[in-house]
Amino acid sequence: MKTKFKALFRALPVMLLATLALTATVVPVSAAISVNIVGTPSGTVYSQFTVSATEVTASTQYSIVLLQNGIERFAGNVTSDGDGNIPNSPVQVPPAPAGYHSVLLKQGSATIATASTTFTVYPSISVTPTTAPVGSQVMVNGTGYALNSLVTLTLGTTTLQPQITYLPNGSFSASFTVPPVARNTHNISAKDAFNNINVNIASLAVTPGIANITPIEGKVGDTITVTGGGFTAGGSVQLYFDTVSEANLLKTITANASTSTNPGAISTTIVIPAAARGNHNIIARDVSSTTNTPGKVYTVTPKIILTPVSGAVGSAVTVTGSGFSANTSVSFEWDGSAISGVAAVTTNATGGFTKTFNIPNATSGEHTITARDATGPAEAVYTVAAKITLNPTSGTAGSTVSVQGNGFQTIGTVSITYDNAVMTTATLTNGTFTATFTIPGGVAGNHTIMATDGLSNTATETFTSTLSATLSPITSTAAPGHVGQELTLTGTGFLPTSAITASFGTSAIGSATSDATGAFTITFKAPAVTTGNHTVTVTDGTNTRTFTFVMEGVAPAAPVLVAPDGVNKPKQPIVYEWDDVTDDSGVTYTLEVFTNAELNILILKKEGLTTSSYTATETEKLPSVSKDAPYYWRVIATDGAGNVGDPATPISFVVGFSFADLIPDDVPTWAWITIGVFVLLIAGGLGYYFYRRSYSY
User: Fold this and answer.
1) What total number of domains does the chain contain?
2) What are the record keywords, sorted (predicted)?
3) Domain-located, residue 503
4) CB 105 within 8 A of CB 62
């Protein structure tokens, strides 16, 4: 046993050393690894940057990865040397979004260490081609921008409208049409929504070119707009069709001056010359620099022009064509069918022709004439001119209208309708006729008169049926009406045998039934309404006419009071009387009795009195008053239109007995003193007399 313990103690140091050795091999290497970015810690996509590391496993391959928002992007592989160091090793910035990225040292999928500083990715762009004329397409590719962010492209100071495709990892591809800017080298910038902008210089050398032609397709003789730029400022620019030759020169213009906001730009119109069907080039030549722009394609399509565009069957029409295929045969059709007896023609070198023929038998209205070559047709509308004229073209129901027509079939009859109702027929002579009929009652407004022959040739014209309605007598501000005035509404041209109603404001005032021509008469009296304008309406439910009735606004005169007259004391119940007041609108009266001269204490008021007197009731008897505190009464007249007249001049009166009535009102003060002295003397004498007499007894 002792021998075993001794052996164990001898082996213990060796075991401890072995344990320490094993422990050392599993301690994470990253605890002592240092990763650094050598040089500037920033750059654009595909640029290189240098990394170094120490204390890594000797002679081992590692990968450098950029990390942003949890997404790793591979930058390159590096290998350590025999001493466990990674010397300055270049790697490439991978396609990555703008901003800060952590730099990771990885072995397989395991992160061994992170650089002490971050790496910043900056945006950059490339332009293809770097020289382009105005109106051509240019590609811009960008890297190092924010993910899926809106990118704004600018050419110099001009904001572009590109077609942008967003690619992964903050990249994009865009194409744009070079706008009409000045001939020069212009910097191109691309900025995203987070204000990340390319750090490299990208430029485009702009040369003369046509930016746009509008439209890009049309016919010979059409006017199109041509815009462009990059020409010599203030210099001459010649526009050509197909080739730069004197025969094909369309126009000479002057480019914008150098002092303009867009030097070297052009904007003008040209007329497409005679040319065969197909694509043709519009070319601009900068005279100063003898530079020709690339051709801008304009496509010529065929057309025909008819002269005239309408006429009767059998009349001649001339068809002028342009833009057809050159030196080819053109045939003619009427409503899609070949025209009997009309031969084909051959176009000239520019695809033009002229052909005259007679209009075949056809109904009135629009028809299609087609000119067709081997490539395709061109069409125009011809109107067979069956035609009618009206005399007169408007009137009320019951009036007579004359209809004259021409351009119909040679012989036969024609039927005349009014809103599809047959009015009459007429006999045709060499395609002409004359007929008359009476306009029936109906709705006011436009109505269709149609003439139709046996071949269904039709012609229409519009007859305007008018209403005739009057309100009499006519009132105005200068000559107003009054309540109860007799008024008459008359009309014609309303719906026949229909109920006609009339209203004054919103109140019905009368009705009638119209006769066969829509005529009627309604008589009514003006109702009691306020002064001013009022609307009188008459309608058959479809046709309506309105009139203005002006109600008079003159107030009635002030009444003259008769009794109580202020002299004679009235008996009760009191009978109040006043003179009649006359007014066209009729009057009513308001009686008021007051207890004071200020007329602000009202004790009796009777409104709406229709006669010029009022007898008080038993309950309306007045208490007795003295002449020192009399009653006052007055009357106000109001007419049927609500016009209130001035009040009558008030009169005072008293009723009943009062001691104050025994005393005259006109005794002067000195008389009252004298009377007082006499009263005192008489009283004193009587007193003395009775005293003496009582003393003697």
Assistant:
1) 7
2) Membrane, Signal, Transmembrane, Transmembrane helix
3) yes
4) yes
